[in-house]
Design a protein that fits this description.
Layout: E1 2-7, H1 13-22, E2 26-31, H2 41-44, E3 54-57, E4 60-63, H3 65-76, H4 90-115, H5 123-143, H6 156-166, H7 180-190, H8 193-202
Parallel strand pairs: 1-2
Antiparallel strand pairs: 1-3, 3-4
Helix pairs in contact: 1-3, 1-6, 1-8, 4-5, 4-6, 5-7
């Protein structure tokens, strides 16, 4: 059975969501952030990166969301929610599966510049703002054409996308109020029973289980 090491208010909630979508058994181990909102030492010790999510599958320890969702899909679920190279939308799937990392990079660059006190009209700040705006507008244009990011069907690419659109704004991430197609997409995906169950278990508003 896969063990999900869940850090409160983190990207590890998407792995809980994946397991619920695939109806696979899992064990959840919960870790609270400190008052500084950083991961505790016990969580950082799980993997050299010290980031969420982290899973154990037997003796295997795996980090990085994109790697985990593809690993679970192919090793434990026969490729469900993934797209294979022989399918016509494989390139779209691959692109949007990894798109999340670009969006988060833009967020972290912007926040670092703000923390450093960089002027809003400095070249780095202007570039960071332009890049973040372009990424979100690009997603808006995509979702004006398709129901889900990889095409007509829900996939792991959608599981990767939702954290940035729903939870990242809690940390100062870009909102989606000016993106109607993205808003409709979030409402559509948020209505999925597995998503609602996963967010109740491990989403940004969830609390550590009393018996944990």
């Amino acid at each position: 059975m896969i063990t999900i090491h869940h850090l409160g208010v983190s990207q590890s909630d998407r792995i809980v969501w994946l397991m619920e979508e695939l109806e696979l058994p899992y064990e959840l181990k919960w870790y609270d952030r400190g008052e500084d909102m950083l991961a505790p030492a016990a969580y950082r010790a799980l993997h050299p990166l010290g980031t969420a999510p982290v899973i154990h599958d037997g003796d295997r320890v795996l980090a990085e969301s994109t790697a985990i969702v593809e690993y679970v899909s192919h090793v434990h679920a026969g490729g469900r929610l993934s797209v294979t190279p022989d399918q016509p939308n494989y390139a779209d799937y691959l692109y949007w599966l990894h798109f999340n990392n670009n969006a988060q990079s833009a967020f972290f660059v912007r926040k670092a510049l703000e923390t450093a006190g960089a002027s809003a009209d400095s070249p780095f700040a202007v570039t960071a703002q332009r890049r973040e705006t372009a990424l979100y507008r690009h997603m808006e244009a995509r979702l004006a054409e398709v129901e889900y990011l990889a095409g007509p069907e829900f996939t792991c690419a959608d599981i990767m996308a939702m954290f940035n659109l729903t939870a990242l704004p809690l940390f100062g991430g870009r909102g989606i109020d000016d993106l109607p197609h993205v808003q409709a997409y979030v409402a559509r995906v948020s209505a999925r029973p597995a998503y609602r169950k996963a967010m109740a278990i491990a989403g940004p508003q969830a609390k550590r289980p009393a018996a944990d």
